[in-house]
Design goal:
7-stranded parallel beta sheet; 280 residues; 9 helices; 7 strands; alpha/beta
Amino acid sequence: MQVLVTGGAGTVGTAITDGLADREAYSVTSLDLEEHPDPDVESVVADARDYGEIRPHFEGMDAVIHLAHVPLDEGGPWERTIRWTEEHGENLSVHANVIDAAVDADVDSIIYASSNHAVGMYEVENAPEIYSRGFDLRVDHTVTPRPDSMYGNEKVYGEGLGRLASEAHGVRFYALRICSVRDPEYDHPYGDAEAGVERGEFERGDEAYERQVARMKCTWQSRRDHAHMVERCLVDETVEFDVFYGVSANDRRWFDIEHARRTIDYEPRDDGEEWKEPPE
């Protein structure tokens, strides 16, 4: 299978290529602003903001995994401001360019990196109690999108484009509302807390640290579970358009994974609750 990954050199992209690139079943090409570090991945340096620059690289692809995203100076996941910025507009263009190119090239399926922030207001209105074990809330694929930021709104926009691509053009579209996938050194539920300690934001064991740990024990998706979810989408031939939550089998998660289990046979191996302390 020929697979193109936009933004393939980033954190989520390398989680996917770490899990799939050395498999004989897949020939993976990364399209990004920088070279991909894995020699098993063909690397194309191109800017997804330029349709003409990226369009030729979609030819012959069976699937596109769309991760590319322009970093935001304002309107990020933790900001409630409603303000148009150049970067926000560029991201809307990136999503349209990639999905348009995939449709034009007759790609069979698109796997889109949506985000938990597309429904992030469920967390905002219930935090910090939502991070406790036994909190009574389950957010599934049927809920109305409730974006918590301009970033979250961008992700909802991408899901809308995917619905159009599916219903008007027959492309299978998988919207993965990814929760917390991290670089290898932080690929555990203490990852965000430990990164905060390294940045000098708080001390190990203080209230802010413990809150970060509690949240990640809800939202963590291990790199191997994420690669597994993506592969289940790649081999699926039943979905027309659907939404799945990118999260491991965490005991205290509020995001549903039963729909992914039933529909694409997603069977995550990790649970944040199994970690009692960070790795040495």
